[in-house]
């Protein structure tokens, strides 16, 4: 999950939970407040009714009528129940059919008043000491707070509607703020895409951050790292340029002088074969240096120059002729049964010198580790790719060594005295990677190795 999505979800969930909690809080305490006010109105009504009956005062009767008009018009199905109680006891005479439990009246007599809620109907009971009559009085006022319930429903609808609208706005705002928060990181990523081994002088910048915030410190650290890398790469490039001249020239002189001295001696001379060994290993050392320099240059540039349209079948035949001139006993067969009739279908856009090196290394390895048996090369083509397969029947590669075959200087454990430097496959793979091609290898120890190269076709 992307960071942007996580921010949006987290912000939306937290805000929604806070809104729900706030809405529940407002709804509950509004309900409690409306219910309390309604109980107060019922209690005032019960007090006035009780005073009217107990004292039989005319002024109370007028006030009773006035209050009834003021309050009871809001009490749907409101009614009053008069209950007589034997003085000195909590025994109720002629108890009406009300939903309250029997203990309710005893509590009212003991505490002077009581409240009870049955569904939407509220009951308030008030106890009166009646000195004009033989029995005391309990007045029970009953009513339904239609007005309060309407207010509650309207409030709940408002909270739900407002909550949905607020959640929608919160989600939109979370997307906006997530984009704003991640914009500096996006800028950094865009700038980093412009940085490669050939453009280490590029520096990062974001207008949405400053040098004092966390992103500003990150940008400063990345720029510092790029500066150090730039200095390091320049030093290595300088070393490679110097090494190219300083190492190759002496080796060329050594090899040339050894060959010249060899020509002046007869084969019977004891130094003849020593000079031959010196010349041979000077050539091999020069080949190793050339491979290392080529590998390093490709790594520094990160791209391929001097590309041109080449035909794969012709290139492979040129490699065969070159290898044959070096290894007279090379046995190589071409399988051309799957090539298309149109020769243009075998063309690719590539650097011919680099492809020559790559395929030459693969074919040379197939011969070198192939037990002197025939090496096969098969070429096929489809609508998108050209596939080249090189296979031998040699010693193969042990399974434990196969994960490391593309590591520089690594050699399989079963090569024995067969000469090699562990750079051929590495160099070939890097060349193909730079051209957008793919190299696969499948090998079984003691049976041989199959190398498959898939090259994208060049649109004509």
From TrEMBL:
The terms describing its cellular component in GO are: plasma membrane
Protein location: Cell membrane
What EC number(s) are associated with this protein in UniProt? 2.7.13.3
Using the UniProt record, name the top-level EC class of this enzyme in a single word: transferase
All residue ranges annotated as the Histidine kinase domain in the record: 242-459
Pfam annotation, one family: HATPase_c
What reaction does this enzyme carry out catalytically? ATP + protein L-histidine = ADP + protein N-phospho-L-histidine
Which InterPro entries is this protein grouped with? HAMP_dom, HATPase_C_sf, HATPase_dom, His_kinase_dom, HisK_dim/P_dom, HisK_dim/P_sf, HssS/ArlS-like, Sig_transdc_His_kin-like_C
Q: Which residues cross the membrane?
A: 7-31, 159-178
Citing just one GO molecular function, the answer is: phosphorelay sensor kinase activity
Q: Which residues form the HAMP domain?
A: 179-234
Key words, A-Z: ATP-binding, Cell membrane, Kinase, Membrane, Nucleotide-binding, Phosphoprotein, Transferase, Transmembrane, Transmembrane helix, Two-component regulatory system
Superkingdom, according to UniProt? Bacteria
Q: What topology does it adopt in the membrane?
A: Multi-pass membrane protein
**Protein name per the record:** histidine kinase
Which source organism does the UniProt entry give? Sphingobacterium paramultivorum
């Amino acid at each position: 999950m992307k960071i942007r999505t996580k921010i949006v979800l987290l912000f939306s969930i937290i805000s929604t939970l806070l809104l729900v909690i706030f809405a529940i809080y407002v709804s509950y305490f509004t309900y409690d407040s409306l219910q309390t006010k309604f109980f107060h109105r019922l209690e005032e009504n019960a007090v006035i009714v009780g005073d009217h009956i107990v004292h039989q005062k005319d002024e109370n009767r007028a006030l009773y009528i006035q209050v009834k008009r003021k309050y009871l018009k809001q009490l749907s199905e409101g009614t009053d129940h008069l209950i007589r109680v034997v003085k000195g006891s909590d025994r109720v005479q002629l108890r009406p059919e009300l939903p309250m439990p029997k203990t309710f009246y005893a509590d009212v007599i003991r505490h002077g008043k009581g409240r009870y809620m049955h569904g939407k109907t509220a009951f308030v009971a008030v106890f009166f000491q009646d000195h004009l009559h033989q029995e005391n009085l309990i007045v029970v006022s009953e009513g339904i707070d239609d007005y309060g319930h309407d207010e509650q429903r309207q409030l709940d609808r408002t909270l739900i509607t407002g909550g949905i609208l607020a959640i929608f706005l919160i989600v939109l705002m979370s997307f906006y703020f997530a984009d704003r928060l991640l914009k500096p990181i996006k800028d950094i990523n865009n700038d980093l895409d412009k940085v490669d081994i050939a453009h280490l002088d590029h520096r990062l910048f974001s207008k949405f951050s400053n040098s004092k915030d966390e992103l500003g410190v990150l940008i400063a650290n990345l720029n510092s790292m790029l500066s150090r890398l730039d200095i390091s790469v320049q030093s290595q490039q300088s070393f490679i340029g110097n090494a190219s001249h300083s190492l190759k020239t002496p080796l060329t002189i050594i090899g040339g002088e050894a060959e010249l001295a060899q020509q002046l001696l007869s084969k019977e001379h004891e130094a003849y074969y020593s000079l031959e060994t010196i010349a041979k290993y000077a050539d091999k050392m020069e080949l190793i240096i050339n491979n290392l320099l080529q590998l390093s240059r490709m790594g520094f540039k990160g791209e391929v120059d001097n590309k041109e349209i080449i035909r794969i079948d012709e290139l492979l035949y040129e490699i065969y002729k070159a290898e044959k001139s070096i290894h007279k006993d090379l046995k190589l067969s071409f399988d051309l049964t799957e090539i298309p009739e149109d020769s243009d279908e075998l063309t690719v856009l590539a650097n011919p010198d680099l492809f020559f090196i790559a395929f030459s290394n693969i074919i040379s390895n197939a011969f070198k580790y192939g037990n002197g048996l025939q090496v096969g090369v098969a070429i096929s083509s489809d609508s998108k790719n050209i596939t080249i397969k090189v296979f031998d029947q040699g010693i193969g590669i042990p399974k434990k060594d196969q994960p490391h075959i593309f590591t520089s200087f690594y050699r399989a454990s079963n090569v024995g005295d067969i000469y090699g430097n562990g750079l051929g496959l590495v160099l070939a793979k890097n060349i193909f990677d730079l051209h957008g091609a793919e190299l696969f290898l499948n090998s079984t120890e003691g049976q041989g190795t199959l190398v498959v190269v898939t090259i994208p076709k060049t649109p004509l």
